[in-house]
Amino acid sequence: MDQVLARVKGKRKKQHFKLISDEALFDAVAIDLNSCVAYNPDHNLDEDSWFKIDQFSQQAFCIDLLKKDFDSKDFDDLTKDQFSQIAYLFSVQGDDFYFQKITPRLFIKRKTLVFGEAAQLEESENRLVVNPTPDAVYFKKSDTLIFRNLATISSIFKGIDELYKEATNDEVGQFLDESFIELANDYDIGKVSKPNRKRIALAMATLASMSDDEKSNMLGYVNDYCHEKLKFDGQNKKFEISTDDELKFLLYGIEQRFYTTPFGREKRIANSVQPLD
After folding, report:
1. The dihedral sign for the CA sequence 196, 201, 206, 207
2. Cβ distance 137 to 29 under 8 Å?
3. Which residues face 77 on adjacent strands?
4. Cβ(33)–Cβ(139) under 8 Å?
5. CB-based contacts of 192: which residues, under 8 Å, 6+ apart?
6. pLDDT by residue, tens only, the chain of 277 residues
7. Cα–Cα distance between 27 and 132 in angstroms, integer?
8. Burial (CB count <10 Å: 0-12, 13-18, 19+), residue 234
């Protein structure tokens, strides 16, 4: 039986309450989970794509609600005075859980004209807007969470924003001290942007998996594609980095984002990548 429930704000013994029974908030999301993208903070989703986190119930940021069998009898009804305290809605549809974050702009209290067989004026009442698409869906059978925007669901799944990892000052400093980097024009840790801090966190993991030969080949690869944007000292095997934009191109090179089209031989940069295997 479908159920719509709400999580209310504040610290209390009971936080989840029933709103509606025998109703579903959202149309079923029918999607091939194999086509979803394992979450990567530097990936730009296509319009019809979703991020996914497999084995979600085993993650530290999974809420207890999803770790046990759901029984609507365990929940009390939401009272009128709690309506304004709703933090998020979740719709239990079959075995799956559909989530929507609630923000103040979704509460509406105004006169409205309703058009049926004839126009009718309705007086102001508290209304809560349901978005066309859920912010996240948890598929219990496959133990997979899908979503489109990590920031949107971070208030639902506390701690999930650890996936949006930015390199710390120590890590940024460690990266800028790499043997193939020569800083210039007073460029330093303080001038590294947040997007590049995020890319540095990814690049450090990539570099750690490379052999010395692969690192050497990587420098040639970056120079081949970026010789007009980056200064490379071939003898000392160092890239001169004097701006945040130059650092971005070096980081894209470490992640092998540059490629040449097989037809037309046009050199391009991939803004997002997804493994095919």
Report:
1. positive
2. yes
3. 18
4. yes
5. 172, 176, 200, 244, 247
6. 799 999 999 877 889 999 999 999 999 999 999 989 988 877 888 888 999 999 999 999 999 999 989 988 899 999 988 988 999 999 999 999 999 999 988 988 777 788 888 888 877 677 889 999 999 999 999 999 999 999 899 999 999 988 878 889 999 999 999 999 999 999 999 999 988 998 998 899 899 999 999 999 999 999 999 999 999 999 999 999 999 999 999 999 999 999 999 999 999 988 777 776 6
7. 8
8. exposed
> What is the rounded CA–CA span in Å between residue 121 and residue 124?
10
**In the structure encoding, which two tokens stand for residue 95, read together?**
């075995």
Of all helices (H) and strands (E), which one includes residue 40? Answer: none
The pTM (predicted TM-score) of the whole model is: 0.77
Residue for token pair 């070096």? 250
Distance set, CA 146 to CA 31, 138, 195, 210 (Å)? 10, 6, 23, 31
Residue with tokens 């989840």: 16
Alpha helices in 67-211 (DSSP H): 150-153, 169-176, 194-208
Residue 56 corresponds to which tokens in the numbers above? Answer: 């979600």
Name beta bridge partners: 21: 3
The length of the chain is 277
| Rounded-to-integer distance, Cα 144 and Cα 260, Å | 35
Q: Taking Cα atoms as reference points, which of 137, 151, 146, 141 lies closest to residue 51?
A: 146
Q: Are 2 and 22 in contact, with CB atoms under 8 Å apart?
A: yes
Q: Which pair of tokens denotes residue 186? A: 């007073």
